[in-house]
Amino acid sequence: MLVLYMTGDLLPDAQRTSRVLGFAFYRSVLETMTGHLSDTAIATQTFGLYMAMATGLPLVGGWLGDRLIGRKIAVGAGALLMTSGHLALAFDRLFLLALVLLVAGAGLLRGNLSAQIKALYAAGDRREEAAFQYYYVAVNTGLFVAPLVSGTVAAIWG
Fold first, then answer.
1. Cα angle vertex 1, ends 81, 55, to 5°?
2. Are 75 and 52 in contact, with CB atoms under 8 Å apart?
3. Nearest CA to 33 among 49, 14, 51?
4. What pLDDT was estimated at residue 137?
5. Phi, psi at residue 116, to the nearest 5°?
6. What letter does residue 121 receive in the DSSP assignment?
7. Cα–Cα distances in Å, from 100 out to 20, 23, 49, 50, 124?
8. CB within 8 A of 100, min separation 6: which ones?
9. Cα(115)–Cα(66) distance, rounded to whole angstroms?
10. pTM higher than 0.85, yes or no?
11. Residue 57: is it exposed, middle or buried by C-beta count within 10 angstroms (0-12/13-18/19+)?
12. What is the tally of helices (H) and strands (E) in the chain?
């Protein structure tokens, strides 16, 4: 969805892209490392960086939750950052900031939520397995349904 949005709406409109805070600098940094990039290549690079950060930052978020700020605060801060990131996505100007907020929030949330679920049960409690199964079913259902719903909404209402 990110690549489709960037190639279909954001990047083809030069006036719109010029309003995105820091986009010219971001593009120049990417092109310094790779050479000239088309709109599709910029979108694909952005998606790759976003996924790499969303996958890697839970290690940092888990460390922060364990060592510095506590799991409850880390989960709450992660949820707040992700909510702020999704709100910022509504404004083209804040596009790159929104992606940063989303990956930071995902790092804090994903890095601490599983440990928080485990802490709900005593060692050897059989309900712990069921709790993790419910958790993973909910996460995977959301991963499956979210693109379908958002794609449908985008197709109908733009």
1. 50
2. no
3. 49
4. 95
5. -70, -40
6. S
7. 14, 13, 11, 8, 39
8. 85
9. 9
10. no
11. buried
12. 7, 0
* Band (64; pLDDT cuts 50, 70, 90): very high
Identify the pLDDT of residue 124. 86
Show contacts of 151-155: CB within 8 Å, 24+ apart: 151/1
Q: What is the DSSP letter of 69?
A: I
Q: Is a pLDDT exceeding 90 seen at residue 1?
A: no
Question: What tokens appear for 68 in the block?
Answer: 């510095």
By the 8 A CB rule, do 89 and 95 touch?
Answer: yes
Tokens of 108: 């804090």
DSSP conformation class of 94: G
Nearest-angstrom CA–CA distance, 15 and 106:
31
pLDDT, residue 4, reads: 86
Residue 44's CB is within 10 A of a number of other CB atoms, namely 16
Q: Report CA torsion sign: 81, 86, 88, 92.
A: positive
pLDDT higher than threshold 90 for residue 9: no
Find out whether 39 and 6 touch, Cβ atoms under 8 Å: yes
